[in-house]
């Protein structure tokens, strides 16, 4: 018996010395519950809990090596998303930068604010599209601010330049909006822009539905990137459901009936009746009809029995 109790509490993770002390104090015939209570009173803990209580040692990472922390891991060129529940984000860089600069200055700081907002939410697939000529020295008619941010985002594989070139002194620019919609459509992601892309909606009916359902508009309030809480209107999904692949449906909350037990609507009442939770919700008139039909039916059966030979 002593050995069986020792094996039982050793499997639970307690030390043999503590088990022997408790068995000596309580005796060999002590119940297992009493032994366990005594071990807890003595302050003895299983080895698994003691290991968890000890602080984990910090691991030193060599300079230049990649960190394994998911929060600090950036997306590579493979396009794999570490979080399967969040949608990819495709940002219209020109639209965001001009909005932050009040349509007068191409403000790269606005792009950085938008990228940081989605990073804090946990999105790992973030792409920003900007025309290639924004990389050059800015002309006088279109000034640019904080141009070094574009270089930093390009090194992080977040910013992508759409192609452009000069032919006989004239700049030939590719349509960057088509890149934005195409990548977002293929990745089943979200487009961040205040542009409606009406010309692209007329080109492709599939793009039309996608732009209507996956376009996330925004505002800048005191250098703060703020998308709406209801991207598709009051009756549409919330912002968290809009940005996630698996939306969480809210629980249906029933409002209690203001009339309580005096309500005469029965099953037609749109409010919640806790007293009718396990009962068939019949109206008062239907309940009275059901009660009157029962004695009438019993009376007719008795008359038939008396009349029958």
TrEMBL record:
GO terms for cellular component: cytoplasmic ribonucleoprotein granule; nucleus. PROSITE patterns: ZF_C3H1. It holds the Pfam family UBA_6. Its cofactor is Mg(2+). A zinc finger (C3H1-type) spans 251-276. GO terms for molecular function: hydrolase activity; mRNA binding; RNA endonuclease activity; zinc ion binding. Residues 251-276 form the C3H1-type domain. It comes from the Eukaryota. Keywords: Endonuclease, Hydrolase, Magnesium, Metal-binding, Nuclease, Zinc, Zinc-finger. Belongs to the ZC3H12 family. This is ZC12D ribonuclease. It comes from Erythrocercus mccallii. The lineage of its organism: Eukaryota, Metazoa, Chordata, Craniata, Vertebrata.
